[in-house]
Write a structure and sequence with these properties.
The structure holds three protein chains of three kinds.
Chain A lengths: L10 H10 L7 E11 L2 E10 L5 H13 L13 E3 L2 H9 L2 E6 L5 E5 L28 H11 L5 E8 L5 E8 L5 H12 L13 H4 L11 E3 L2 H9 L3 E5 L5 E4 L17 H18 L2 H10 L7 H11 L6 H21 L5 H18 L5 H15 L4 H21 L1 H16 L2 E2 L2 E2 L9 H7 L16 H16 L1
Antiparallel strand pairs in A: 1-2, 2-4, 3-5, 4-5, 6-7, 7-9, 8-10, 9-10, 11-12
Helix pairs in contact in A: 4-7, 8-13, 9-11, 9-14, 11-12, 11-13, 11-14, 14-15
Chain B lengths: L8 H19 L1 H8 L6 H22 L5 H9 L3 H31 L5 H17 L2 H25 L18 H14 L4 H5 L8 H30 L1 H4 L5 H7 L11 H30 L7 H18 L4 H47 L1
Chain C lengths: L1 H17 L10 E12 L2 E11 L14 E10 L2 H9 L5 E3 L5 E4 L1 H6 L2 H9 L8 E4 L4 H4 L13 H11 L7 E2 H9 L6 E9 L16 E12 L2 E6 L1 H9 L8 E5 L6 E18 L2 E17 L12 H25 L6 H8 L1 H7 L3 H7 L2 E8 L14
Parallel strand pairs in C: 1-4, 1-5, 5-6, 13-14
Antiparallel strand pairs in C: 1-2, 2-3, 6-7, 8-9, 9-10, 11-12, 12-13
Classes of the chains: A alpha+beta, B mainly alpha, C alpha/beta.
Chain lengths: 488, 375, 395
């Protein structure tokens, strides 16, 4: 922590230093205490803290009174006392509800953790709702989150390490994994990446994703985010690494592969055949959510031979007198839908449904009636939207939106040629991605049968490898990645 | 070694299978039928053993020079003569890119987007290809791992979809005009299998370098390449009759026009767009990468220049595909009498020769060493 | 990397924004369902059956969903593509041939040879290679006025044509464009095309009055046209056309009426499946033909006075069936010899077996056909007799 003034002199100089610097803050308390003399020498102590950050009651009963009785401050509080060595740490400790103490006969400044911050109690998961399975979620309290993890996975194999990230205002991050799960190199990489974060006051794990990804900016998510402890356990026991952050009610899971984003929390607790069906369905939905409007546009503007004659005539009839050409119509309708979605997300829950009714039903119906758009166009746009909604990962749904517009643009210019071009570029993009060195599209391509069966829910557990790693083959791929790194 | 360039043995073999087979089932079908008529479908089977020897030689060669590409070890094998030969290979790979690009844009303009200028199609397509190539061999290999099974599946779909229209008795009588037509198609077929020489450029990047597995997979790739040539050839002749087929520039595409899916998609030529474009995508990316990588190796350029070079050469091939061939008959003639024979030479006949030379040098060297020890 | 990447994006975007060259919207084109080709003063008289949805309001707005208007556009030219160009001037939107179901050749045109028309049809990327090819007696122009009533929508005729041909494919030698092109180039086989005719009927409405414009012009199947080379040389009646189908085993669902002992009466068999083959062999320098047919049919009706099913013995029924098939084959064969059109493919069979012998006889193949003995072997099975075990008798 920087080169801030050191705090290892006698009490007077410490007091002087603190008086000149951090004590200027509002609510800062400096308290002097006369201690019982020891072997005839008079002793006193000074305490520094921020009024609002500490539990005053506990300060009195657990620190002040015992100290007045002559006990040493170091062992007074349950949480271990730390020695503060410089001013920055002192400021950090005070802000986090510590009480700094120095006695007149010592050159050490001790910090006692007496924080008492109000935290939200454990709540029902908000974005990852499920029908079956536990319904607890993380809170903003890191100790609480870790306690949930430990309680649910009370195994000697569970490893929890902490890392402080940030430069002048460090925040505690924790990585949790199962011994023998992730490879040593994965752990090394993730530690290095966390250490490399220089951003201060990181508020949520979401801010870490860029630092932790293999490729900084991608449209596809390479890190899974969850607010459910049970989901974290499912992944951690499967050999993944979870990253927690102070004040963040979510955990990151790495490596996260493409297929993982089709898993909903329910999948862990439902009957497997059903899970298989659902996952296949979501996969189909994703593949529908991207190209559907583009297909419609290319079939109605470029490849008039593709559809059966009767359907073509129906479409033609719908399009008689429509003012906008299909590409523009598709673009407008899709944009309109995105606006609608944005509106309903921002509004309070009570009004949300109203917007969707007004927007969806009234506008849609009116648009058709007024002849501004063809019913089939509305059908295509809404079907696409519904498909995107069925994805368990909102990030993936966003990805689908980006690519949908991209493909729409390409298809408007080149028809199927453009559509195919877009699809190939998406594919190339996917193929160049990795998460902690594991190929992003792993069980799908490079194809791994057992992993794929697991990803589809046709296998109860991930295939057995050394320990319970992501999979022997996946690990090998990752090894290849790192070996390559070392060799270059 | 760069991780963006590492692939597994399976990926390498699939890559070759995916990149090469497009010629056999789309680009060169018309040349094969024209050369061999009704009996042309046998050519692949006849050529296969010869090509197998070539493939085996390629793998052995890479075994002698682990971690090196053809361009790197050619001078070691042939001495100074190796440099011009390496140059020939690079020109051949670039020609493959130009040939594929030209054929693709020609076909698009002939069949799907009649009004679009072909340079626009070529340029946009090349940009998409460059994006993939930019990501490295690993990305190309992975794209291929997705597209190849899909291509194969759809190919099987079309062969099932036209099963009704197929009349395999159209393949008889066999050898009406003797074995001449079969042999001339076999030569062209060897030219097509010669594209597998790209294997020599990528085996150095295979990790872990398990040679037995590499050999096994490469021979399977050859088998795939033979099947994807023979199937569509026999299929086109059985559906269209060889006399109709030989007059068609894209017989396999006409094939697609005959399939309809469950009466909803009445014409599946749109899926043929997928077949062609997805196949050519991997193919272009691979050959372009290989040519550019080879050029940096041949001229001893720093690796960093590879990427700008990639884009430069990629865009040049677009211009080449546009301007080199004034019309389609000229282009066809070039493919038939220059490109495919060159492929047969460089891809099928040269590797065994190289192997023999490398072998002889090796024995010579070890012999000398033994002799010195003896003395 | 980022800079050149950006450059690429800009380049791509400028391409995308600059044009949509091949764009052709639904509302820019008029779809053609059928093409009729006739000959008029040595020129092509080409009729296009244009289909369009009924305009909203024309027949009660939304209720008319899926209804189609059909009308004919006729153009005269020296080539087909020219005719398309001329027809384009007669409709407000660009003609597209992407939805052509069938190409109908008029009789006079077919007699002059259909090959010249095929070049355009095969070359065009719009016309499907799977489009049906048929001939009609009289002019195709006249034929294209068909408006079959039973189609889902009265005016849908040409669209329903596809289903119709397919449904009749068990009794007619249905041909797709690509097959026609293929057969014309094949050695030793001649072409047959199904014959469809227009039949005008009156469809009175329940009040007994004839509906105005009720589209009472039906499409009926009438046999087949036989070709030598690409020229029409004669007609097969519906039964004779079936005779040609036996030899390739494509007969199915057809009803065969076989005469009983009393030649005035009939027993009817419904064909389930059939197999057939034509073989030409050379024995002692002599060319011999053989037609083998295996037919499986159910007894559908027996109007005979005698019992054709005796207990469990169906041999009498099978005999009758076989005899009927043989009769049809014999008739067909006679016609084949008479016209010299080898539509059963005796030559093809010989060619595939012994190309050199066929080549030697190729020049005077019709004469060879007329002389060569043909053996007809029919194997018949009657596995089922319907809901009755024996013939129904009133007494």
């Amino acid at each position: 922590m920087g080169h801030s003034p050191r705090l290892d002199a006698d009490l007077e100089s410490t007091r002087q230093l603190i008086h000149e610097t951090i004590s200027q803050q509002a609510g800062f308390v400096t308290r002097e205490l006369s201690l019982p003399p020891q072997s005839g020498v008079a002793r006193w102590a000074v305490l520094w803290y921020l009024q609002a950050q500490v539990d005053v009651k506990r300060l009195e009963t657990h620190v002040l009174l015992p100290m007045l009785e002559g006990r040493e401050p170091g062992s007074l509080v349950g949480r271990p006392a730390m020695t503060i060595r410089d001013l920055d740490s002192a400021s950090w400790a005070v802000n986090r509800g510590h009480v700094l103490v120095q006695t007149s006969d010592s050159n050490q400044v001790l910090s006692l953790d007496l924080s008492n911050f109000p935290f939200r109690s454990v709540d029902v998961p908000k974005t990852e709702g499920s029908v079956s399975g536990p319904s607890e979620s993380f809170t903003e309290s890191l100790p609480n989150n870790l306690s949930q993890i430990r309680r649910r996975f009370p195994s000697p194999d569970l490893r929890v390490e902490n890392v402080f990230i940030g430069d002048r205002a460090p925040i505690e991050a924790v990585i949790a994994y199962k011994m023998g799960g992730p490879t040593r190199k994965m752990l090394k990489t993730i530690r290095e990446r966390l250490h490399a974060v220089k951003q201060d006051a990181v508020q949520d794990v979401g801010q870490l994703t860029e630092a932790l990804s293999d490729i900084p900016v991608t449209l596809f998510p390479t890190i899974l985010t969850t607010e459910r402890p049970d989901v974290v356990i499912q992944y951690v026991t499967g050999g993944r690494i979870a990253v927690f952050l102070e004040n963040s009610p979510r955990a990151l899971i790495m490596p996260a592969l493409f297929m993982d984003f089709f898993v909903s929390p329910d999948d862990f607790y439902e009957a497997r055949p059903f899970v298989t069906f659902l996952r296949t369905l979501r996969f189909l939905a994703f593949n529908m959510a991207i190209p559907l409007p583009a297909i419609y546009v290319s079939v109605t503007t470029y490849h008039l031979q593709a559809l059966p004659t009767l359907l073509t005539l129906n479409l033609l009839q719908q399009r008689q007198g429509a003012p906008l050409p299909p590409p523009v119509e598709a673009l407008v309708m899709s944009l309109l839908f995105e606006i609608l979605r944005e509106a309903s997300v921002r509004l309070p829950r009570a009004i949300g449904p109203t917007v969707s009714i007004v927007g969806g039903l009234v506008i849609g119906e009116a648009a058709i009636r007024s002849g501004l758009t063809a019913p089939t166009m509305v059908l295509v746009v809404t079907a696409t939207a519904v498909a995107a909604f069925s994805l368990p990962s909102p990030t993936l749904a966003n990805t689908a939106t980006y690519y949908r517009f991209g493909l729409l643009l390409l298809a408007s210019t080149f028809g199927f040629f453009g559509l195919l071009l877009g699809y190939l570029v998406v594919l190339a993009n996917l193929s160049s991605m990795s998460s902690l060195g594991v190929p992003y599209t792993a069980p799908l391509f490079p194809f791994q049968l057992e992993q794929m069966l697991y990803a589809l829910g046709l296998r109860p557990r991930p295939p057995k490898g050394a320990g319970n790693r992501p999979s022997p083959s996946l690990t090998r791929e990752a090894e290849r990645f790192y070996e390559g790194d070392a060799g270059s | 070694m760069n991780k963006k360039w590492q692939i597994s043995a399976l990926q390498a073999a699939m890559l070759v299978a995916g990149a090469v087979s497009l010629t056999g089932h789309a680009l060169a079908v018309t040349f094969f039928i024209q050369a061999g008529g009704r009996d042309s479908w046998m050519a692949g089977l006849v050529a296969m053993p010869i090509a197998a020897v070539a493939v085996w030689s390629m793998i052995r060669l890479s075994q002698f020079h682990p971690g090196q590409s053809l361009v790197e070890y050619l001078p070691r094998v042939l001495g100074y003569a190796g440099y011009p030969v390496a140059g020939l290979y690079l020109i051949y790979y670039l020609t493959t890119v130009v040939f594929t690009l030209r054929m693709t844009t020609d076909w698009m303009v002939d069949s799907i987007l009649m009004q679009t200028p072909s340079w626009v199609l070529g340029l946009t397509y090349m940009l998409a290809v460059l994006y993939c190539a930019w990501m490295g061999l690993d990305a190309v290999a992975r794209v291929n791992q997705f597209t190849l099974p899909l291509l194969t599946g759809l190919g099987m779909l079309v062969s099932l979809g036209t099963a009704q229209a197929k009349d395999y008795s159209l393949l008889t009588p066999l050898f009406e005009f003797g074995v001449g037509p079969v042999l001339s198609t076999t030569f062209l077929g060897l030219g097509y299998f010669g594209e597998m020489s790209v294997l020599m450029m990528i085996t150095g990047h295979v990790f872990p370098p398990e040679r037995k597995r590499m050999l096994k997979y490469s021979l399977l790739a050859l088998l795939y390449v033979v099947i994807t040539m023979t199937g569509p050839l026999a299929g086109s002749i059985a559906t269209l009759g060889y006399r109709v087929a030989e007059q068609m520039p894209y017989p396999t595409f006409t094939h697609w026009m005959m399939v309809s899916l469950a009466r909803f998609f009445e014409r599946t030529d749109l899926l043929a767009v997928h077949q062609w474009l997805a196949g050519a995508y991997v193919r272009l990316a691979l050959f372009l990468l290989v040519a550019v990588r080879g050029a940096t190796q041949l001229f001893g350029l720093r690796r960093a220049t590879g990427s700008p070079l990639l884009i430069g050469i990629g865009l040049l091939t677009v211009i080449g595909a546009e301007l080199l061939f004034p019309n389609k008959p000229f282009f066809d003639e070039f493919i038939r009498s220059v490109y495919l024979p060159a492929g047969a030479m460089l891809g099928v006949f040269v590797p065994p020769v190289l192997l023999t030379v490398a072998w002889a040098r090796r024995r010579h060297r070890t012999g000398q060493e033994v002799g010195r020890h003896g003395a | 990397m980022t800079r050149s990447f950006r450059l690429a994006v800009v380049l791509l975007a400028s391409l995308l924004l600059s044009g949509c060259w091949s764009r052709r919207e639904l509302t820019d084109v008029s779809f053609v369902g059928l093409i009729g080709v006739d000959l008029e003063d040595d020129q092509y008289l080409v009729t296009f059956n244009v289909i369009a949805p009924k305009q909203a309001g024309q027949e009660g707005g939304g209720a008319s969903q899926g209804r189609a208007d059909v009308w004919s556009v006729t153009a005269t030219a020296f080539s087909l593509d020219e005719a398309v160009g001329k027809a384009n001037q007669l409709v407000s939107r660009d003609i597209t041939l992407a939805h052509v179901r069938a190409i109908v050749f008029g009789e006079t045109f077919a007699r002059k040879g259909i090959a010249p028309a095929l070049d355009f049809l095969l070359r065009s990327v719009e016309v499907r290679p799977t489009a049906w090819v048929t001939v009609t007696t009289g002019s195709a122009n006249n034929f294209l006025e068909i408006r079959p009533r039973q189609e889902r929508v009265p005016a849908e005729g040409p669209i329903g044509f596809n289903d119709l041909v397919q449904a009749r494919s068990g009794i007619t030698p249905a041909r797709r464009l690509i097959e026609v092109a293929n057969i014309l180039q094949e050695e030793g086989i001649d072409l047959t095309l199904p014959l469809f005719r227009r039949a005008d009927m009156k469809h009175p409405n329940p009040d007994g009055e004839e509906e105005a414009g009720s589209g009472a012009r039906e499409l009926i199947y009438g046999g087949a046209g036989i070709f030598r080379g690409d020229r029409l040389v004669g007609w097969l009646s519906a039964d004779q056309a079936r005779g040609a189908l036996w030899s390739v085993g494509r007969v199915s669902r057809a009803a065969l009426a076989a005469p009983c002992e009393d030649p005035e009466k009939r027993a009817v068999f419904r064909v389930r499946s059939s197999e057939g083959s034509v073989r030409t062999t050379v024995r002692d320098q002599k060319i011999e033909g053989e037609i083998r047919v295996k037919v499986v049919a159910d007894l559908n009706e027996s109007a005979c006075s005698e019992q054709i099913v005796r207990g469990g013995d169906l041999s009498r029924a099978e005999e009758m069936l076989a005899k009927q098939v043989r009769t049809e084959l014999t008739e067909t064969l006679a016609l084949l010899r008479e016209t010299g059109s080898d539509y059963l493919g005796f030559g093809q069979s010989l060619y595939r077996r012994a190309p050199s012998i066929f080549r030697a006889h190729e020049k005077k193949w019709p004469e060879t056909l007329a002389e060569m003995p043909v053996r007809i072997v029919v194997e018949a099975q009657v596995p089922r007799t319907g809901q009755m075990k024996q013939r129904y008798r009133a007494e």
